[in-house]
Amino acid sequence: MDVIEVIVTKRDQGALSTEQIDWVIGAYTRGEVADEQMSSLAMAILLNGMDRREIADWTQAMIRTGERMDWSMLDRPTADKHSTGGVGDKITLPLAPLVAACGAYVPQLSGRGLGHTGGTLDKLESIPGWRASLSNEEMLSVLRSAGAVVCAAGSGLAPADKKLYALRDVTGTVESIPLIASSIMSKKIAEGTGSLVLDVKVGSGAFMKDVAHARELATTMVALGTDAGVRTVALLTAMDRPLGLAVGNALEVAESVEVLAGGGPSDVVELTVRLAREMLDAAGVSGRDPAEALKDGSAMDAWRRMISAQGGDPDGVLPRAAETMTISCPASGVLTRLDAYGVGLAAWRLGAGRARKEDPVSFGAGVMLHAKPGDLVREGQPLMTLHADETARFDRALAALEGAYEVGPASDPALLPLVIERVTA
Ligand code: URA
């Protein structure tokens, strides 16, 4: 096969054959196709797209470059959730043990944050002793003892995607729906889950800024999962404002524990319960009500088992940032807007996120909100508190928040509904 012919086919708006896709993905992973050639192909795909058959072939070819996990030895169905990422999106933390408490196994391979969105592993690593890297045997043992495991994907899972994603990141080719969908789904299918619920975020704090693009991504991913034999559904959910009140690693762990204790912000509780119901439905597990399992302590028990099984201390003291700064409400009225991207960017600049993959994060850094859009507020009352390890970080965080919130007379702010739409095969 000739790589230039593959590039030219896509450049000229042709469809790549199954053989061309299989070959180019394999050869790139083995180092036989150069980065500049693959980046040219990725740009041609970004500009000219791929049809459903090509995307499915691309996804399967990436899966074939690594191992595919198998949980068929377990005595109950498996279910997983993937979020396309947002600000304050800590849902996996209460959701995984909740679904385990209701009778499905949750084998979740997660990622770290990059840019203004947080990563589940960074959040969990703020718990003293908790370990993200597990062998396959350890994963199985945590699953058996706790019902849920959340850990880092090993290097053997879809290695083509690891290499290609790093290349897309530096060549302006991340924002292609076929490439995003195949990247996410190759890892989720290789993870071996029997069913999957996708939480596709929409709004300023998300990858997909509008409902039409989010719907296209969701539809593409649901088709990929379904074609691969994974029962897959997607919800489009709001990311025009942050989820919950806490944004930042340890701050979000504390909020998740509140939810597991039967409290917590209403939007986090509502989305956690809705996603749990979808996961249990997709897995064919019935008989337990997730809302009940949050109230009766069984989800909390599963959380404690899951954290302990990965070396963490569920009663350990979470890290706190050394410095805080409170922002007050500029006027009295209704908080009509609190922009997810602005808050996410502020948390990132406070130290909660990283600029490069190898950077460390500050576990205690982030933003605590004291009001959400729609709330009545008074001039001078605390609107949010910034947390950072050094006061020098506050100025750039304040700059990120300029224009990110508004107080007005309207009592009905124009917000996206928390759950916008459900997408099925
Ligand atoms: N997350 C992924 O895993 N891949 C993408 O391409 C985008 C987001």
User: Residue share in helices?
Assistant: 40-55%
The CATH architecture designation of the largest domain is: 3-Layer(aba) Sandwich
CATH class of the largest domain: Alpha Beta
Q: What series of H and E elements makes up the topology? A: HHHHEHEHHEHHEHEEHHHHEEHEEEHEE
Model regions low in confidence, pLDDT < 50 over at least 5 residues: none
| Major beta sheet, strand line-up | 1-4-5-13
Radius of gyration: 21 Å
> Structural class given helices, strands, pairing?
alpha/beta
**Count of DSSP strands:** 13
Q: Distance N terminus to C terminus? A: 35 Å
Please give the count of helices.
16
Describe the protein in words.
This protein folds into three domains: 3-64, Transferase, Pyrimidine Nucleoside Phosphorylase, Chain A, domain 3, CATH 1.20.970; 79-315, 3-Layer(aba) Sandwich (Pyrimidine Nucleoside Phosphorylase, Chain A, domain 2); 323-408, Aldehyde Oxidoreductase, domain 3 (Alpha-Beta Complex), CATH 3.90.1170.30. It is 44% helix and 16% strand. It has helices at residues 3-11, 18-29, 35-48, 52-64, 92-101, 120-124, 136-146, 159-169, 177-190, 211-227, 249-260, 266-283, 290-295, 298-309, 340-352, 394-401; strands at residues 79-83, 106-110, 148-152, 195-202, 231-238, 246-247, 323-328, 333-338, 366-369, 376-377, 382-388, 405-408, 419-423. The relative contact order is 0.15. The mean pLDDT is 96. Uracil binds next to helix 9. Belongs to the thymidine/pyrimidine-nucleoside phosphorylase family. Its EC number is 2.4.2.4.
